[in-house]
């Protein structure tokens, strides 16, 4: 709306009202909205009205039509106006437009120039700094992004907005976590914690800051594998989201223009807390709990996406699906996992940026699925494709480790295996059993149940091969109990087979028979799921290693892979 000392002319208000009516109609009548705005120019409007109308037309054309040239023209005219509020908003939208057109190098100077001349307009100066930092982060230039967020934090401090200072610092902390710069993260989170607790202001803003802070704290703990130590923070986070859901949105707006920001809507924060809880449950090995929270989060996301087209919702959805897919593969539900991999493919089809950010994870998940159905050549191809798409150290290590397991299963890939092991850990001087005992000690200390179960059964297997049946039994029995609690189908299958052989070797006929029956039951469950998964048309995804994922799948005649290794 035009803001001047004189009241707007009635003709302008009428055209603006009609334009807004057509824009918000269901369905929107964008052509009529554009006609109303274009009609403003016929009245030879004053400069401010003309500039504002260029901005409105550019925004409507950019967001609702494919007429990119006309949108760009109007936004550029608005950007060179003499009115600061119009100029800075136009710069913000124009940079979005350039990014959508894959003209990132054109977007950056627009934002930089606007930042240079907006220091007397606190709201726009902070908003443009956030926007340019986000642009650098999307390009993986996290150093430049962190520098800009640091500039923003200092500016907000000078402007007397501790709230916005905390937002800048927490955003910087998030990027430092992504970069694994843990030595810098700890003091930054300590500072943020002090600012958040001491700041008194809008209750929703305060609670949203606490959610942001606690999400980073929980993530920091989980990155370090401290699943047990994180529980108090996670409980605080869950209590915080309950508090925020009781607060009303109609709180008084801040008087400081530098504080007119909000991190996330309440509903988005709720989904994020579900996601963090899923991550914790996965690491702790509480897979049924992870599935329960994933289902809740996905249901909420479906409702939100009916009313909200924010890209972050699709990002949340993909991350949740990535976690639940790993759950399904562990619990022996390969067919469901494959259908959920297909859902991720469909979401990535709709957003090139989403695909760019998650392509490596998608190929990794397909590689894990291929292992589960004994398609080792396809697994190798998927992991190789994933390695070419990531520079993230932890994901790289995870992929390489799983690729090593493929070589071990194939049995004739010794040279490739040794080469991979050299890249993972050049120092082979320590005995394997010591590594396993250290792993067991660490996983026990932090309640990492899956890691504990895997370590126990592997140690049990080693002791059995060495003829130490008593020590083997001491390892395998708790491994089976823990695996059934998780539940981890592969460890249950392995443990039951080992128990059968162990009891047979010790002459415990009844116990051996019982273990053999358990093993048979697990084998049948896996076999039925194997047949169901390989019969799905989505099974053809295992052959996709390049470009965007296929949209359609040809139906399968039946499983084409060997079942022998499962049994």
Automatic annotation (TrEMBL):
Q: Record's Gene Ontology CC terms? A: nucleoplasm
Entry's localization field: Nucleus, Nucleoplasm
Query: Which keywords does the record carry?
Result: Cell cycle, Cell division, Chromosome partition, Mitosis, Nucleus
GO BP of this protein: cell division; chromosome segregation; mitotic sister chromatid cohesion
Which InterPro entries would you find in this protein's record? MAU2, TPR-like_helical_dom_sf
Highest taxon listed in the record's lineage: Eukaryota
Cite the Gene3D superfamilies for this sequence: Tetratricopeptide repeat domain
**Stretch forming the signal peptide:** none
Chief localization class?
A: nucleus
Q: Which family does it belong to?
A: Belongs to the SCC4/mau-2 family.
The protein in question is named MAU2 chromatid cohesion factor homolog
């Amino acid at each position: 709306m035009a803001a001047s000392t004189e009241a707007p002319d009635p003709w302008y208000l009428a055209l603006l009202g009609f334009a807004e009516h057509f824009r918000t109609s269901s369905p929107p009548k964008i052509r009529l909205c554009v006609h109303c705005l274009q009609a403003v120019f016929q009245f030879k409007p004053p400069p401010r009205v003309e500039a504002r109308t260029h901005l409105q037309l550019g925004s409507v054309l950019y967001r609702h039509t494919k007429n990119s040239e006309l949108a760009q023209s109007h936004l550029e005219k608005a950007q060179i106006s003499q009115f600061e509020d119009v100029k800075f908003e136009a710069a913000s939208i124009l940079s979005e437009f350039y990014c959508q057109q894959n003209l990132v190098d054109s977007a950056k100077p627009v934002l930089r120039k606007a930042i240079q001349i907006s220091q007397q307009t606190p709201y726009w100066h902070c908003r443009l700094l956030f926007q340019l930092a986000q642009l650098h982060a999307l390009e993986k230039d996290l150093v430049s992004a962190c520098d800009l967020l640091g500039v923003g934090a200092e500016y907000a401090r000078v402007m007397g907005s501790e709230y916005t200072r905390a937002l800048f610092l927490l955003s910087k902390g998030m990027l430092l976590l992504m970069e694994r710069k843990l030595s810098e993260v700890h003091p930054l989170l300590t500072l943020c914690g002090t600012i958040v607790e001491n700041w008194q202001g809008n209750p929703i803003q305060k609670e949203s800051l606490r959610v942001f802070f606690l999400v980073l704290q929980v993530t920091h703990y989980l990155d370090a594998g401290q699943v047990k130590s994180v529980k108090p923070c996670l409980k605080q986070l869950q209590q915080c989201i309950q508090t925020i859901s009781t607060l009303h949105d109609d709180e008084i707006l801040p008087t400081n223009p530098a504080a007119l920001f909000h991190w996330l809507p309440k509903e988005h924060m709720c989904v994020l807390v579900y996601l963090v809880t899923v991550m914790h449950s996965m690491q702790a090995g509480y897979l049924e709990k992870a599935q329960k929270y994933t289902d809740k989060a996905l249901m909420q996301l479906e409702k939100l996406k009916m009313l909200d087209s924010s890209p972050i919702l699709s990002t949340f959805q993909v991350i949740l699906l990535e976690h639940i897919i790993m759950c399904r593969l562990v619990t022996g539900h390969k067919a469901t996992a494959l259908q959920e991999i297909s859902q991720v493919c469909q979401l990535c089809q709709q957003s090139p940026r989403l695909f760019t950010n998650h392509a490596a994870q998608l190929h990794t998940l397909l590689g894990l699925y291929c292992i589960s159905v004994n398609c080792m050549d396809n697994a190798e191809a998927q992991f190789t494709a994933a390695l070419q798409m990531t520079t993230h150290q932890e994901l790289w290590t995870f992929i390489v480790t799983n690729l090593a397991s493929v070589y071990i299963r194939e049995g004739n890939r010794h040279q490739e295996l040794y080469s991979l092991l050299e890249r993972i850990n050049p120092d082979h001087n320590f005995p394997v059993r010591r590594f396993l005992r250290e792993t067991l000690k660490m996983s026990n200390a932090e309640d990492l149940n899956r890691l504990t179960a895997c370590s126990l059964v592997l140690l049990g297997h080693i002791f059995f091969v060495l003829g130490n049946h008593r020590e083997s039994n001491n390892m395998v029995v708790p491994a089976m109990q823990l695996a059934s609690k998780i539940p981890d189908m592969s460890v249950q299958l392995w443990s039951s087979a080992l128990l059968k052989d162990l009891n047979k070797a010790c002459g415990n006929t009844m116990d051996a028979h019982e273990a053999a029956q358990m093993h048979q039951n697990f084998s049948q469950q896996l076999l039925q799921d194997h047949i169901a998964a390989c019969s799905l048309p989505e099974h053809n995804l295992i052959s996709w290693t390049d470009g965007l994922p296929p949209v359609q799948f040809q139906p399968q005649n039946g499983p084409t892979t060997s079942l022998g290794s499962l049994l």
